[in-house]
Backbone:
């Protein structure tokens, strides 16, 4: 712990410095009547807020213990924090954009160019110091040369996850012990931390750009003072540069939003080809069909999958389970939950035999059972009439749907079938259940 | 357009209950008003009005976000890109709107602070009053449109209102009776119409290329279903995720309405009480302190006052009026933040994959464990996809397959009683059946990929196992990695892997033989 107090001090120093500078910039922005300086000061405040959000979510995510309130821990916090930062930045850019347009409509000169120039360049210096602080932090945190995450476009985000580390208990990085195969996994884990820090760095970058605009505009006014002349081209420099800056920031915020959306919307993670995956899974011997295949990313490269497979016997299932996991492992998905269902000729191969105890729960299933998505059979194609008969049964059951026992003919069938399966592998009994 | 999403033939004007239609109408109104405000501000060259019009523009953006979310969320089918369909989109839309609103509050706060230091007079208060009132009317209209989704409200539910609230407030207990109501009613019209659309055309949304055979299957099944579904839906039961989305929009409109109220009140008071400086003649404005000109005007007016014995210098009206605007803005910001915070929290909790509020994982776990035939429960995960769709996964350890089959239904029932209807239960068997040759590491991912597993291989506080659980004994010779040093990183809960030559087979809980 001792060796991290220095980092914490630096963080606090950074925060204090930014706050002080925000106030200074705000005051001089109003005194000097420079919209760029005012917006830059707001940027600095938004920097602070985004820093707080980013660090706190990083901390929450790192401390994520699985608990009764969150069975996966809070590792998603980083994605949510990154999204919040990106949206916050978008909203701020929107207001800055609006103000710049208003300025274009009614241009005003910068009054006290010298003051603005001084404060603006100091602000730029503060921004650069901030960047360096993050940078330095990052390289000190890792004991071995960091392989900077490949997904940080804006700045060299080597401090992926670094700032939150020292203030946390995760003293020694697990990096040190890793076997070679952990290398790429560590990298992808860093990716999620990078996601979080990217949100903060986006703000810092926007801030730095703002400072650059301020310095440029103030320099021009300093060199060519207007005194009391009406506004000429000089007055348009400030707002137009600001608009350009807004576009630059937006273009770098957008990829961040896309990436966080991939995680938060439960999309299939990049790099996983569902088509290929389901093909391979369907070809595993012992699997008659599979359905309800779900693959999603929890956070930072941790992919989770669930699926239901239909097989003939429990032995089939046990054989297939290992191979299925292997297929997933090769696809980069390491947490898999497989639900076996045993063949029941009453239902379509593609429908779930035991979705829930009542057909009426269908709307609350994650995916409606009436249109099984991504289900695949292995081998033969189902006959049309069996499909319709299955559907017909659905129809019947959905109408009278109060009591549980009556209502789940499928589940009961499958249970009966399971019993049949266990006792003997006599397939002839499978079709002879009730209904 | 407005009726496009409504189920055909259900009778009555559905457009007013249709989320998308409402959003579109509000969007059109707001955008129109924004344009009007911009034009008026140009005509009257009032900068304040122009800046106020951009608040309307932010409203427009919020509505656009909500619309996009609604459109996405209607695609509930699984696709290749998203195996859950896009139902999460509305929750995300709600979060984006909430954060957007917070950021706007932040900028309004800064503007208010700016006004404190440099108070402005309102020029042409009459025009401002006029436009302000018009804006207020539009906002009130919007509030009415989205009112049902206000803070804590729930959507339309004709005749099944109790079941709707029942679904929210009582997860256990009378579930079976309410399930049918929900079952019928909670079928989204959108889902239904998606079905209808699927019948007619295999569009890209629903019919991703899942393989030729599968396409045929889907087509057939969809066709089979469409026959008896769409017209069963009598009413629109809005899912809670849709409510979240609408709440975000409602809060935006609410904030805008508050803003309009402030504008109108301020302008009215200004019009009534303010004594403006007359154009000509000496005037001293004590409120606007412009340090450059202050001394000049002061000396000027004083000199003139000395000249004219009357001493009636026009003094610009009561100064406190100028500070009314920022004060009201501050109050408005506080109100908005207070009402936005719950929405932010709720949508963030869903996105964080937390357990829904009304489900107690501990009791669920104990219920499962006390079942006969269940030896252990682990990897129990419950999370909310969106709205009422709650998903659960668990690994159940049973002595042998036949025992499992006996309890499988009970397990599902237990989940069902908690309101979790989409479950994936993985049975694991302690005793090796006939396949004794298989080693302990059934799963390629048990150790090497520990970091990449959702929860590591360690034990969490939820799953109280009957066996010792903090270490994973492996007998495979392949596994050589030692993680002992990483015990300190608690967050990863990486277990220490010990190589042991002989292991008690029954202790192994992860084998799925």
Residues:
């Amino acid at each position: 712990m001792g060796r991290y107090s220095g980092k914490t001090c630096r963080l606090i120093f950074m925060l204090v410095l930014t706050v002080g500078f925000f106030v200074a910039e705000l005051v001089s922005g109003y005194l000097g009547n420079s919209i760029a300086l005012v917006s830059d000061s707001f940027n600095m405040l938004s920097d602070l807020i985004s820093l707080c959000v980013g660090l706190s979510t990083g901390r929450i995510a790192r401390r994520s213990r699985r608990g009764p309130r969150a069975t996966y821990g809070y590792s998603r916090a980083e994605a949510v924090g990154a999204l919040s930062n990106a949206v916050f930045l978008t909203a701020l850019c929107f207001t800055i954009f609006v103000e710049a347009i208003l300025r274009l409509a009614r241009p005003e000169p910068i009054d006290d160019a010298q003051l603005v120039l001084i404060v603006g360049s100091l602000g730029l210096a503060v921004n650069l110091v901030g960047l360096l602080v993050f940078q330095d932090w990052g390289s000190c945190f890792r004991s071995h040369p960091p392989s900077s995450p490949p997904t940080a476009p804006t700045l060299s985000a080597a401090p992926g996850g670094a700032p939150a580390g020292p203030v946390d208990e995760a003293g020694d990085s697990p990096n040190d012990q890793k076997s070679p195969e952990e290398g790429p996994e560590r990298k992808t884990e860093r990716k999620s931390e990078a996601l979080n820090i990217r949100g903060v760095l986006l703000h810092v970058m926007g801030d730095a750009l703002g400072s650059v605009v301020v310095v440029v505009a103030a320099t021009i006014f300093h060199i060519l003072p207007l005194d009391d002349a009406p506004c000429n081209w000089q007055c348009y420099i400030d707002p137009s540069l600001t608009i350009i800056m807004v576009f630059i920031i937006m273009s770098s915020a957008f990829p961040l939003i896309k990436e966080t959306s991939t995680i938060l919307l439960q999309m299939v993670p990049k790099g996983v080809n569902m088509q290929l995956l389901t093909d391979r899974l369907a070809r595993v011997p012992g699997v008659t069909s599979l359905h309800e295949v779900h693959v999603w990313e929890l956070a930072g490269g941790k992919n989770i999958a669930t699926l239901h497979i239909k097989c003939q016997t429990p032995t089939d299932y046990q054989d297939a389970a290992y191979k299925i996991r292997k297929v997933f492992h090769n696809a980069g998905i390491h947490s898999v939950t497989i639900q076996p269902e045993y063949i029941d000729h009453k239902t379509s191969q593609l429908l779930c035999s035991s979705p829930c105890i009542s057909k009426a729960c269908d709307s609350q299933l994650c995916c409606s059972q009436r249109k099984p998505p991504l289900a695949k059979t292995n081998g033969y194609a189902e006959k049309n009439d069996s499909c319709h008969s299955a559907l017909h049964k659905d129809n019947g059951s959905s109408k009278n749907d109060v009591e549980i026992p009556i209502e789940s003919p499928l589940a009961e069938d499958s249970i009966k079938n399971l019993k049949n399966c266990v006792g003997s592998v006599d397939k002839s009994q499978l079709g002879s259940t009730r209904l | 357009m407005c009726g496009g999403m409504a189920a055909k033939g259900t009778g009555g004007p559905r457009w007013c209950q249709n989320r998308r239609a409402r959003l579109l109408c509000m969007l059109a109104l707001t955008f129109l008003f924004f344009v009007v405000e911009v034009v008026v501000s140009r005509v009257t060259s009032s900068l304040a009005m122009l800046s106020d019009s951009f608040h309307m523009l932010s409203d427009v953006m919020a509505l656009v976000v909500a619309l996009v979310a609604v459109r996405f969320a209607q695609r509930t089918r699984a696709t290749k890109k998203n195996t859950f369909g896009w139902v999460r989109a509305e929750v995300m839309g709600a979060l984006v709107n909430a954060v957007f609103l917070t950021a706007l509050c932040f900028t309004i706060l800064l503007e208010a602070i700016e006004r404190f230091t440099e108070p402005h007079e309102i020029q042409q208060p009459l025009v401002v009053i006029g436009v302000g009132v018009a804006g207020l009317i539009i906002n009130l209209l919007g509030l009415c449109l989205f009112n049902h989704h206000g803070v804590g409200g729930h959507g339309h539910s004709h005749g099944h209102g109790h079941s709707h609230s029942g679904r929210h407030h009582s997860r256990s207990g009378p579930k079976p009776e309410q399930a049918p109501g929900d079952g019928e009613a909670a079928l989204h019209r959108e889902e239904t119409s998606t079905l209808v659309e699927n019948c007619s055309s295999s569009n890209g949304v629903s019919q991703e290329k899942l393989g030729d055979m599968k396409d045929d299957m889907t087509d057939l099944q969809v066709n089979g279903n469409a026959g008896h579904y769409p017209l069963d839906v009598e009413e629109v039961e809005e899912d809670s995720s849709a409510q979240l989305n609408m709440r975000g929009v409602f809060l935006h409109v609410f904030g805008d309405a508050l803003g309009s109220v402030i504008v109108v009140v301020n302008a009215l008071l200004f019009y009534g009480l303010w004594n403006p400086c007359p154009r000509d003649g000496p005037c001293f404005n004590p409120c606007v302190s412009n340090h450059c000109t202050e001394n000049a005007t002061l000396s000027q007016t004083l000199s003139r006052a000395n000249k004219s014995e009357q001493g009636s210098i026009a003094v610009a009206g009561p100064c406190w009026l100028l500070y009314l605007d920022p004060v009201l803005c501050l109050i408005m910001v506080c109100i908005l933040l207070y009402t936005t915070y719950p929405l932010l929290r709720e949508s963030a909790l869903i996105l964080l994959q937390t357990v829904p509020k009304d489900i107690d994982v501990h009791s669920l776990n104990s219920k499962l464990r006390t079942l006969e035939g269940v030896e252990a429960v682990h990897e129990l995960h419950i999370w909310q996809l969106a709205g009422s769709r709650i998903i659960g996964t668990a690994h159940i350890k049973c002595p042998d397959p036949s025992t499992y089959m006996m309890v499988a239904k009970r397990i599902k029932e237990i989940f069902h009683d908690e309101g979790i209807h989409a479950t994936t239960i993985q049975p694991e068997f302690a005793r090796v059946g006939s396949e004794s040759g298989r080693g302990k590491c059934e799963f390629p991912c048990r150790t090497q990929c520990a970091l990449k597993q959702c929860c590591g291989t360690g034990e969490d506080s939820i799953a109280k196992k009957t066996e010792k659980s903090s270490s994973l004994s492996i007998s495979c010779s392949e596994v050589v990695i030692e993680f002992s040093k990483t015990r300190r990183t608690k967050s990863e809960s990486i277990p220490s892997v010990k190589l042991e030559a002989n292991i008690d087979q029954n202790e192994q809980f992860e084998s799925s033989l």
